[in-house]
Recover the amino acids of this structure.
């Protein structure tokens, strides 16, 4: 089969529906079909546009499929979704989207479905969503915001006024948020160099040291990335690492560190002096930390595999600890479309809360008196955030919440138990952070 980005996207979508893990599935398919450059970018764009808008796409398609999407062959289902996504969200003319979809039925040996694909798509591409009627608010959110029932209900309960805004939000103004490696160049110099190199735009972000840029291809292929002058990290995520206030000479532990975004920022702040232990429970992800640290040229970082729910006598007492905890990810729906459809089962949620709580207890024991602990998550779930901090403070009266030196961008909700970024209020990812100090 000749390299065909539409076929690659459809094949990856079929596998995604069976196996999950969008990024791995897509990467494997792009490699298998040997796609490069613009074809690779186009296939990736189709794939992620379908995942991001699947609720809306399916609702529209089902208007014209009396037996529903579930009864179709997986390949035909994904051909329909991919074509409608191109016509609706990717500025592909309807005629091109439909004709290419019909050709794909032959590529996937489903030619008997070509008439159905043609007929359904011609109507679906012209469907006016304004005319849709919904059973209730949850269904409206699921369709217009493309979310599964659990996520729609969570948002409806906790953020009733902002639920649809959160679901349709594009973090960081649709740009890629970068962190300049200030040991090599500051944010202003990075912007200048990026613009000189031909990126579409580059400007300082809301968080000190951050840069918002638009690239033609992948930022990871840019020479300045390969030279360790920047790494890719959301602004809100940078803010959490800045709250640690790591200083040269400190002993710092990043307890949940992979793939290493915040570790790089901490390492940069330490300017090569002191010791930074960058730990994660997932061995394969510790490798990602090591390669990121190596690319940036930091020599004072030790990356290791460690389960932070248990004490590890090999770890030293620390001046500063970051717990960027495993969480439900409900703040980064725009970046990780799979999370939109996840089921929020109580048993799994309780297990997650217990993990977060044990990791915090480990951190409390490892921290020196007078030291700083920062707890952060990329969720807007109060149980994982403010309530988790309140419970920690009740167990550990030796800790108190402190206000970090870095200014919080406008729109952050700052309370007794931490600071929250809700995407619709700050323009950044949904994120939570709380800085605490251990008293003597
Ligand atoms: C939100 S991610 C961390 C992102 C990272 N701090 C960064 O900035 O790139 C949470 C991490 O916690 C790790 N994790 C989950 N359970 C853990 C445990 N018991 N001990 C240590 N790490 C754990 C996961 O493997 C995951 O890499």
């Amino acid at each position: 089969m000749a390299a065909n980005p539409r076929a690659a996207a459809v094949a990856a979508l079929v596998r995604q529906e069976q196996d999950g893990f969008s990024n791995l599935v897509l990467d494997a398919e792009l490699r298998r079909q040997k796609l490069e450059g613009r074809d690779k970018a186009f296939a990736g764009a189709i794939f992620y546009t379908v995942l991001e808008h699947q609720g809306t796409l399916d609702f529209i398609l089902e208007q014209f499929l009396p037996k529903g999407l579930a009864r179709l062959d997986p390949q035909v289902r994904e051909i329909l979704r991919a074509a409608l996504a191109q016509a609706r969200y990717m500025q592909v003319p309807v005629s091109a989207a439909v004709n290419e979809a019909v050709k794909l039925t032959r590529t996937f040996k489903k030619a008997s479905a070509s008439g159905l694909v043609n007929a359904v798509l011609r109507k679906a591409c012209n469907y006016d969503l304004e005319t849709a009627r919904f059973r209730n608010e949850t269904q409206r959110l699921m369709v217009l915001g493309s979310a599964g029932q659990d996520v729609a209900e969570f948002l409806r309960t906790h953020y009733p006024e902002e639920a649809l805004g959160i679901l349709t939000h594009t973090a960081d103004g649709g740009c890629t948020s970068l962190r300049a490696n200030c040991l090599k160049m500051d944010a202003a110099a990075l912007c200048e160099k990026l613009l000189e190199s031909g990126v579409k735009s580059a400007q300082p972000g809301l968080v000190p040291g951050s840069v918002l840029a638009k690239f033609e291809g992948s930022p990871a292929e840019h020479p300045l990335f390969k030279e360790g002058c920047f790494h890719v990290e959301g602004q809100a995520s940078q803010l959490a690492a800045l709250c640690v206030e790591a200083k040269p000479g400190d002993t710092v532990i990043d307890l949940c560190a992979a793939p290493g975004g915040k570790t790089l920022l901490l390492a940069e702040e330490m300017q090569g002096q002191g010791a930074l232990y960058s730990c994660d429970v997932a061995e394969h992800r510790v490798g990602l930390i090591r390669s990121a640290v190596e690319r940036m040229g930091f020599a004072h970082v030790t990356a290791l595999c460690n389960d932070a729910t248990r004490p590890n006598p090999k770890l030293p007492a620390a001046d500063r600890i970051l717990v960027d905890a495993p969480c439900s990810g409900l703040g980064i729906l725009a970046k990780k479309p799979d999370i939109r459809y996840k089921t929020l089962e109580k048993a799994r949620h309780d297990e997650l809360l217990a993990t977060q709580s044990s990791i915090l207890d480990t951190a409390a024991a490892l921290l020196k008196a007078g030291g700083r602990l920062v707890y952060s998550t990329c969720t807007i779930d109060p149980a994982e955030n403010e309530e988790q901090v309140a419970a920690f403070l009740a167990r550990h009266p030796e800790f108190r919440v402190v206000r970090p030196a870095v200014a919080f961008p406008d729109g952050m909700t700052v309370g007794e138990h931490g600071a929250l970024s809700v995407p619709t209020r700050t323009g950044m990812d949904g994120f939570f952070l709380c800085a605490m100090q251990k008293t003597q």
